[in-house]
From TrEMBL:
The keyword Transferase applies. It comes from Ovis ammon polii. Disulfide bonds join C149-C161. This is Sulfotransferase. Pfam families: Sulfotransfer_1. Signal peptide: none annotated. Gene3D superfamilies: P-loop containing nucleotide triphosphate hydrolases (3.40.50.300).
Amino acid sequence: MPRTLDGQITMEKTPSYFVTREAPARISAMSKDTKLLVVVRDPVTRAVSDYTQTLSKRPDIPSFESLAFRNRSAGLVDRSWSAIQIGLYAEHLERWLRHFPARQMLFVSGERLVRDPAGELGRVQDFLGLKRIISDKHFYFNQTKGFPCLKKAEGSGRPHCLGKTKGRPHPEIDAQVLRQLRDFYRPFNRRFYQMTGHDFGWDG
């Protein structure tokens, strides 16, 4: 990481850190004072989105249902499939809490980031000790993508939206499959809510 001067914040983003076993100890060894931001979303929607991305690169992969279950009729979910495993947030968080106190972590709601980007980024700015300068006026909602976009990117006169790999339509998944996955994730979600002190509302 580059050296950070007084009054500066150095940021780095890698989605796989949260689920990589070695990451908490390595980051703690580098700097115990690191603040950690983790964007989380409904693990069922996340799993479908993960599958959608893989499907766009490899159209010949098996169906979502066959990958998600070891035994569908018994409702036995395949925890070893990465699309399922990543959504077990409570298990990943347990590893991080061995190296960092909860006060150094902020869990950002992916759903709220889409619904109210300025509000959720207000929490991020507060957590990082920054003055709140990002507000609603910085965003517009892109109907095609289904995401908010920045009205003007830094140093550019053009709006900035997430890339073309984001906002793809998801394949149709059997409602019963989604129900079974919600049931599977419920105890993990509830434990995660307790650990973070925040109910993300994924069990509705």
